Amino acid sequence: MAFACTTREPHAAFSSELDAYMKGHLAENQPGGAVLVMKDTAVVFRRGYGLADLGTREKITPATLFNLGSISKTFVSYGILILQAQGKLSVEDSLQKFFPDFKNKDIARKVRIKHLLTHTSGLPDNRPVMRDSVFYLTADDAQNWYPVTQTDSLEFEPGTRYNYSNPAFNGLSLIIEQVSGVKWQSFIGQLIFEPAGMANSTITDGPHPSSGVSHGYTKIAGEWREDDYGEEPTFCASGNGGVWSSVNDLARYESALRTAAFIDLPSIDSSVAIKRFQGWKSDEAPFIGWSWFIDQTPEGNKVIFHTGHQGGFAAYYVTIPEKQVFFVVLYNAPYDVYRFRSDLFALLGRYRWLDLP
To answer: How many helices (H) and strands (E) does the chain have?
Structure first.
């Protein structure tokens, strides 16, 4: 279903078109999603579609908690930056400082926190997930990180290439725990969730949360099957994907970043600046900050974003800072978040919200 341009009052017309678009993609009696759009400081659209739980028939609302998948990495990243602002660590610190039991000491000396944050460490994801899927159904951050510490070789020299790494953020969460002296889930809750006003958000800690959240689903042989905790290996490895939140709370997260509510502005600015390391060898130019990805709208506006996929959950968080536009979509089934982003960019463009000066 394509968006149709109208001439009514801009926000009302925009909302009407987006609502029709979502209803055209998500059925009321199936897994669905929630969407929120913010322009300047005003939320101009927020609605839920479909069911959070196929068993209870609970409906999705803007307050429904979804697993964020890899958007969780941005919270871990800010946890590291908070500790750096407190003078307790540096992104230049090597892994040897925190993990002296690394099998290869030379690798531990080479790889630094900054490489984990930017997926440029060269560390392999050598977890035997497929061979030992039962173990990884309940494996925590430490158990997911351990195989990486036993590697004999790097895939490439740190800082020279990009290769997305989930275990890197398991390792970063363990660094937060080691340096702060508290569980990393508690650290993020106290230093990010609370000042941001994200009162309903939570983080996986073993089997937690077992209630009060939506369930993820994947369609198999024409039927929806639950696909989250207990069904999806590595779901308990929370450093790479353990945050549960709602579109309402993520709007509060975005507002907190705009106002530097939980960390200083220079740290926030640094987090969304593309990192360029000496010796870069990839044909593709760097495109990542401290965990955030950076690209452009069709009009040329800077875009800061992160996606999330885990089990049956899919998510996309996007902010366009020059235009003060923010939107997020959270699904409890593997719907196409990339198509949503493209279609919403087209709608925003037609309403002239993305025009360059």
So the answer is: 12, 13
Structural domain span for residue 229: 10-350
217 phi and psi angles, rounded to 5 deg:
-135, 145
Q: Return the SS3 of 205.
A: strand
Look at 141 and 11; give whichever has higher pLDDT: 141
* Sequence-ordered strand ranges (E) for 26-181: 33-39, 42-49, 51-53, 58-59, 66-67
Asked if residue 132 belongs to a domain, the reply is yes
Q: Find the mean pLDDT for residues 161-182.
A: 98
CA 298, CA 2: separation in Å to the nearest integer? 18
**148 and 122 in contact (C-beta within 8 Å)?**
no
Q: How far apart are CA 133 and CA 231, in angstroms?
A: 10
Inside any domain, residue 127: yes
pLDDT tens by residue, 37-46: 999 999 999 9
Rounded-to-10 torsion of CA 59, 63, 66, 72: 170
pLDDT tens, residue by residue, 42-86: 999 999 999 999 999 999 999 999 999 999 999 999 999 999 999
Structure tokens of 180?
A: 């702060």
> Cα–Cα distance between 347 and 75 in angstroms, integer?
29
Looking at the structure of the chain, the number of domains it has is 1
Number of Cβ within a 10 Å radius of residue 178 = 13
Plot region of 206 (φ>0 → left; ψ -120 to 50 → alpha; else → beta): left
